[in-house]
Amino acid sequence: MRAFNESVIEEFRANGGVLGGRLAGTSMLLLTTVGARSGLPRTSPLACVADGGDLVVFASNLGSPRDPEWFRNLVACPDVTVEVGTERFAARATAAEGAERERLYDLFVSRNPGTEGHQAKAGRPIPMVVLRRIG
């Protein structure tokens, strides 16, 4: 998976956020967190949806019972860097809760076919993360 993610990151940056292949047409961003244990920057390509002025990502880990590493990193340090297209900005990440989480989950799966089964497969509520620009 690491090699796949690295190739997506490279393609994203080389083409101003436009991806081809099976990711063509998917709204994507690059999320850079600080490693909770290492303290090093970690970048992950993620599908996203816009919600007003915020961006929302889905901590599915492809339906794994475990949260993805990037989610554990942002819980430890919610200040992140987001790349969308050719734009790069600082943001603060928060996990939505309650009715807001449900609304964002429905929004995300409606715009990203194939993700609706991740939660049942994972056997856990998948965190919906709101990325709000800082400044």
TrEMBL record:
InterPro entries: F420H2_quin_Rdtase, Split_barrel_FMN-bd. NCBIfam families: hi_GC_TIGR00026 (TIGR00026). This is Nitroreductase/quinone reductase family protein. PANTHER family: F420H(2)-DEPENDENT QUINONE REDUCTASE RV1261C (PTHR39428). Belongs to the F420H(2)-dependent quinone reductase family. It catalyses: oxidized coenzyme F420-(gamma-L-Glu)(n) + a quinol + H(+) = reduced coenzyme F420-(gamma-L-Glu)(n) + a quinone. Transmembrane segments: none annotated.
